[in-house]
Amino acid sequence: MGGGPLLLLWIVLAVLSRLMAAVVSPIRPLTALEQAVALWPPAPPYERWLERALIAPWVRWDAEWYGRIVEQGYRAGDGTLQFYPLYPLLALPLARRGLSPAAALTLVSLAASLGVMRLLPLVVDGDLPAVRRAALLLWTFPTAFVLFAPYAEAVFLCMAIGSFAAMGRGRWGWAGLAAALAALARPQGIFLGLPLAWTLARQRALRSGGWALALPALGFGGWHFYRIAVWEGLPPPGSGLHDWIYGLLLSPSATRVVPVQAFLPPWEAMGRALERFAAAPDLDLGVNLAVALWWLLLAAAAWGPMTGAERLYTAAVALAAFSYHTGPVHPYMGLPRHLFLAFPVFTALGRRPARWIDGLPIPQMAGWSLLIGLYGLHTWVT
């Protein structure tokens, strides 16, 4: 699958996802624009109707927080400082030219998702059938629709895949810079230092390129230093370990977004989730556990073809995702979306020439379609 078919796949999925969200939105119109403007028939002013049809149905969950940041900036104590700055910063110039925050964020996501599609063949390291398999597996994963949503995942993956592509070509400065930008988009960007260190060691380039290892740490640490210095300060003396971790690495106001959250040993976090589901099954947790199980099966099949660098990054992302406990009601909030960031699962599977792998996008598309509907209805916490 060369550039043309990859672009066609992007167009088809982008259009299909937009249509599905639009069709679902009248069932439960949540934003003011959805409530004020009917989806059908189209009515003037048409630019407002287009925003209602194509943009507003995607303003759910984290998209609302990013929109608030673009509109009013970061503020101490209101929860916005939990969200990393690169994504809203990229949308800000578009918003200042008159676009709504949601429209500006969506355009950034669409552009970054095109970057993901363009860069993906560079990290597959295989022939055209391998690229085709990898692209289909990644883009049809049930939570892959967030690449078209006002979420930071598209920007993050564009930078993370770009970092891996630069590593494979020995371009250490570009690899480190892309990793630093990824760490300014989502906290998982700090994990890119692991494959970078592995690749440098394998190629005996630590002396010439070891300096690049500082860049992801500078991106990650620089944001938190700025956040602490300008807005929130250090946790007060006597605070417990949990408060210090959140004060230094997340934000003291993170509980404004998710009231109960903690990092636990993954077996403990999983145990709590399973106990919660056994005691009171619900759709949200059931979906998260089912998609996580699917991801684990894919990861197990992909582990063999992975390089050491890919394994380190995938393991770190998975460990963080399975360790993130988000309270007794929704104990694994966002788990499938966080696991999706471990893109080497899809690129490594693409290298395996097996018929059963060619069939995996079919059940994935069913999950992809279902989750778009649940996202639009606001019945599943993305």
Short description:
By secondary structure, the chain is mostly helical.
Describe the structure.
Helix 7 packs antiparallel against helix 18 (344-350) and helix 15 packs across helix 18. The protein has one domain. It has 382 residues and is mostly helical. It has 20 helices and 2 strands. It has a two-stranded antiparallel sheet with strand order 1-2. The chain has helices spanning 3-24, 32-36, 46-54, 62-72, 86-96, 101-124, 128-140, 153-168, 172-183, 193-202, 206-209, 214-232, 241-249, 266-279, 283-302, 308-323, 335-340, 344-350, 355-358, 361-377, and strands at 262-263, 324-325. The mean pLDDT is 94. The protein starts with a helix and ends in a 5-residue tail after the last helix.
What keywords describe this structure?
two-stranded antiparallel sheet; 65% helix; mainly alpha; 382 residues; globular
Layout of helices and strands:
Elements: H1 3-24, H2 32-36, H3 46-54, H4 62-72, H5 86-96, H6 101-124, H7 128-140, H8 153-168, H9 172-183, H10 193-202, H11 206-209, H12 214-232, H13 241-249, E1 262-263, H14 266-279, H15 283-302, H16 308-323, E2 324-325, H17 335-340, H18 344-350, H19 355-358, H20 361-377
Antiparallel strand pairs: 1-2
Mean pLDDT comes to 94
Number of helices: 20
H/E element string? HHHHHHHHHHHHHEHHHEHHHH
If you compute it from the alpha carbons, what radius of gyration comes out, rounded to the nearest whole angstrom? Answer: 20 Å
Fraction of residues in H or I helices: 55-70%
